[in-house]
Amino acid sequence: MAHNYYKIWVHIIWSTKDRQPLLNSALRPQLFQHIREKAKEEGYHLDIVNGVEDHLHSLFSLNPKFAVSEVVNKIKGESSHWINSDGFLKTKFAWQQGYAAFSVSESAVARVREYIKNQEEHHRQMTFQEEVEGLLKLHRIEFNPSDL
Q1: pLDDT tens per residue across span 105-121
Q2: Phi then psi for 52, rounded to 5 degrees?
Q3: Is residue 74 packed enough to be buried (19+ CB in 10 Å), middle (13-18) or exposed (0-12)?
Q4: For 27, which of 16, 56, 71, 95 is 20 to 30 Å away at the CA?
Q5: How are strands ordered across the β-sheet holding 8-15?
Q6: What homologous superfamily is domain 8-147 in, according to CATH?
């Protein structure tokens, strides 16, 4: 082939350190906008980002030159620095060390986008732990529940 063709969709989830409910309703819209802007600056295509008090979901269409770990670490590191520098919280903010990343087929992008869009409603019925366990099982990823 004379050209490279790709479409790599990735659903990425990460939580606040110890899943503390620090992302209040006033902070979240500003945080999500900040993450969108930083993703664009880095050259990442962020389709959607949303979340609740203790975690967030994002959907990226990634260029293969970017490793998922690089994208997550840059976004997490920069956004935690931004939260702490701007004094949004009375306590020091940090993201949990790990994350979950799932490939998404083109045929499922709209469904994943809706799922991310409706996080607040979704978490009225399911905890973060239940959500992540369900996604790990769906994607046939072995895990230890005590690690979540």
Answers
A1: 999 999 999 999 999 88
A2: -130, -165
A3: middle
A4: 71
A5: 45-52, 55-62, 8-15, 100-104
A6: Transposase IS200-like (3.30.70.1290)
Contacts of 139-145 with CB under 8 Å at 24 or more apart are 139/102
33-66 tens-digit pLDDT: 999 999 999 999 999 999 999 999 999 999 999 9
**Ramachandran angles phi, psi of 132, nearest 5°:** -65, -45
Listed by start position, the domains of the chain span 8-147
Can you name the residues that pair with 56 across neighbouring β-strands?
Answer: 14, 51
Instruction: Give the distance from CA 86 to its chain's centroid.
Output: 21
Contact 95, 7 (CB under 8 A): no
